[in-house]
Structures are given as structure tokens and as C-alpha cells.
Amino acid sequence: MAGLVVLGNASQPVAGDLIVSEPPPLLHLLPGNPPLVLVVNGSRLFEVDVEYFDQLRQDGEGAEELLNFGTPLAAPATGNVPLVPPNAISLNIAQSCNLSCSYCYADEGRFGKHPVLMSKKVALAAVDQLFEGVVPGQRATVGFIGGEPFLNREVLYATVEHASKQARSSGSRVGFSVTTNGTLLTKADLGLLRDHSFAVSVSLDGSGEINDRHRRARNARVRVRRARDARCDRQVMDRGRASGRLRGFLL
Known about the structure:
Blueprint: E1 5-7, E2 14-15, E3 18-19, E4 27-30, E5 36-39, E6 44-47, H1 50-59, H2 63-67, E7 88-95, E8 116-117, H3 120-132, E9 139-146, H4 153-170, E10 173-180, H5 187-195, E11 199-204, H6 208-214, H7 224-231, E12 243-248
Parallel strand pairs: 7-9, 9-10, 10-11, 11-12
Antiparallel strand pairs: 1-4, 2-3, 4-5, 5-6, 7-8
């Protein structure tokens, strides 16, 4: 964050406005009107006067007053903390998108790099690693994101099949989710979403007019009805078991 000043242990050496610390900093100083101080332990945010803020910024004097206010400071963890095996993964299977929305922060799903699709080998290996930590009876979740994940339809289908087999063989359960713009969905895709009880998020932004103005393909606008009709063919929402969630406004 621009203008962010980090305050660590006041006994540590100072490098410019940054006080180097090990373990991680205890306070974050946020210049502004009024100036604010974020205490990391407990995520506590304080409004302070300018004089006190400058004092903290210069030498850290008086920091204990905030650190000890309200919630006692927990003792820092020491040594290696064992990691709990995950029971959910999110696979970015398509670092690319078929849309070119005017406000896109993700560079059409490329995030400043070249478009790339996840290989089936990588996706299946991720699923295998997930199920290594899943115990019988436990539910695992595999999510698909992008870009637009249905640009990599073959890998999505293969991953769903593989994860379902892994769940059966391990005596566990698996659920699926996908975030999609909805414009590429076919009847076969809707069947997959229904049969595997996907949680489906389809993003439509603003009214139909606003959506069609800003949410467009590279050479044309994408009508709000196109995404709506592709997703709401009544195969998913009415007769199927998949759940649908809209982010935005649907006509």
C-alpha cells in the first residue's frame, strides 16, 4: 500500500521509515487525516493524534500503550508450526479469458503474462496431493477459476472425473465449484454442473445496459441475455442439484 509505514520492534535498526523486525512487525502506521495505527494482534485499528503518530514513526516510543490496550499481546509462536492438510483447492486452469471487460484488473485473465492453460498433468497431480490429506468421511472441495475456466474445458472435465474417482476410492466425499462469466456454457457443461452438484458463480455487472457497455468480447459486446440464457436453461436451477449464485444484476 502506498504510504504504508511499518513499525516493528523499536530496538531493531531503522532503515528509512521502515524499522526492520524479526518476528514480523507489530504495528502498521497509516498516514492520513486522521492518522491511523493498525495493531496486528487482534486486527485493532486506532485513530491517534498527529504528535503521537509522529512519535511512533520516528522511534517507536509509546508503542506499548497501543499494543497492551484492550487485548493482551499473545506470545509469538516459536519453532515450526505443523500445517494442517488442506481439504480444498482452487485451480486456476485458464490464465486467459474470452472477454475484454473495460474495467478488468486481470489483463483478460493473463495477469500481465502470456495466456496459458493448466495442463491435465498438473491439475490431476494437485487433486492427488489434495486427497493425500483427506480422511475417510471427510469432504474435499475442488474449485475452478480463471480467467474463464471453460476455455480449458477438457482439463476441467478430466479433473472432475479424477477427483470423483479419488473420493470413491478413499471413502471420502468431494464437491466442486466454478466461477465463470457464463458465456461459453454448453448443454453438456450444464449437465456436468448438475450431475456433480457444482456451486456455480456467474458474474454479471450492473444493469443490462451497463453490463453490455463494459463487459464485452474483444470485438463485440456480450449481451446480458447471452450469459443468462446459457446458465439459466432451467437444467441447472430448476431440475438439477447444482446451486447458482449471481454476482451482480440479472435482468
